[in-house]
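Example record for the data management plan.
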Amino acid sequence: MRRFASLIETLDATNKTNKKVNALTTYFKEAPKKDALWAVALLSHRRPSRPVTTTLLRAWAAELTGLPKWLFEESYHIVGDLAETIALLVQKKGTSNPPSLSKCIEKIILLKSQTDKKKKEYILSQWISLNRLECFVFNKILTGGFRIGVSQKLMTRALSRAVQVDEMILAHRLMGLWTPQTTSFERLILRPNPEDQISQPYPFLLAHPIKERVFFKKEDTKQWNIEHKWDGMRAQLILRKGNHFLWSRGEELINDKFPELEVLKNLLPEGTVIDGELIPFKNGFIGNFHDLQKRIGRKTVSKKLREDIPIFLMAYDLLELNGQDLRENPLWERQEKLASLFKQVKSLDSPLLLSKVYQFKNWNAVLIEREQANKKRSEGLMIKHKESLYGVGRKKGSWWKWKSDPKTIDAVLTYAMRGHGRRTNLYTDYTFALWHKGELITFAKAYSGLTDTEIKKLDHFVKQNTIDRFGPVRQVTPLLVFEIAFEGIAPSPRHKSGIAVRFPRISRWRHDKKIEEANSLDDLKAMLP
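Corresponding structural encoding:
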């Protein structure tokens, strides 16, 4: 535990990539294998489930510190992190022999089935005995969040150096549903059993946002394939050993959410892996993302729901065929094989679509196609180099995304809430409303898009114009107008406005407008496709 806590301190103290990689590499070389495996799990978001609520942790911490509950809560809001607040406030005896990382986590996992009394006894004993840094890490494991600026790609790079296994191979081994409780460092990383990897997806290749002016000046359109960027859910379909596995980009196995894709294991060759986008598709028309969310959010998928919102896989890349890894093949070759594969199932009743690949003579023609995105129910365009290999993560130079210009609307600020972390003393999370029959109706929340100077000015406004309080939330006098940008829009009975917008953010502060000039809910509804 002490070694891992020291690692976290080192990682948190620097923004230099090489220093982080070196620290991780040293840790993986020196730590006991059980601890190293848990470190890999924690840094790749495979944390044990939370054994106790934060409400109880806050109550126990207030009791142990002897602080009134209100004072502890105020301290928590100022610090902005519960794990750090407890580590700072609890008076510790310290110990020269803390438990190992693996033993500590094993004990935390066992807490799940214990009574609240037993949980309290153990947690308080750790708070008192661990030093401040160890206590902080212990609390982070309890509450389930490490935000230390270490991506899974960076962690994999360090692990690759430590164990002398190729980074791309290692990235694949770390995919899937493994936990340190179901495998070992040896079996997962050093000498994996091929049978264990039947269900494993490949690491996803991600695209970078394009900088049009620079890119279009130096690149020849003939070297690039153009596709629409489909507004769905990224997924890999894996067909191996008579089974099918559907994985989200977040490494969640989602077979049960989309059972209609199971039929593909009988229609496509053994050893096939397809990269694509899950989209609602009914009567020849692509649905919207809100329809897809209805499927994602259900624990069970009824026959009626499948009929109302059928889901197809829009395929755009072929990563494996007949058990052969194709990721080192150029894109044009992978897409040719995918098109040939699609012909085999096109005439069948198959939940598979093929993303159309375009080729243009100049970038002006590409721009014209981008303007068709809304009509074709896409978010914009993907620009992929014909010779690109299928790498790991976000690699610059091969795949680019050119999203459509966002939709915008002018709305009125009505509520504000305190931020987190370094902005915990500022009101940085905002709620916006639109006019409807003479009243302001909430339609979206946003917290990004303002400069630090604007945030400070707005924070001052919130504190000076509060008309009601609800915990950390303040209702403010409606006086300010902001332009809100968003990517998509769909009807939603769950929202008071009846409309859901995707990725809302503040695009600018409209100092030139009075609230009477803000848009109406009818203006927003007019943007529905």
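Summary line stored alongside the record: The chain has three domains: 2-143, 205-402, 407-525.
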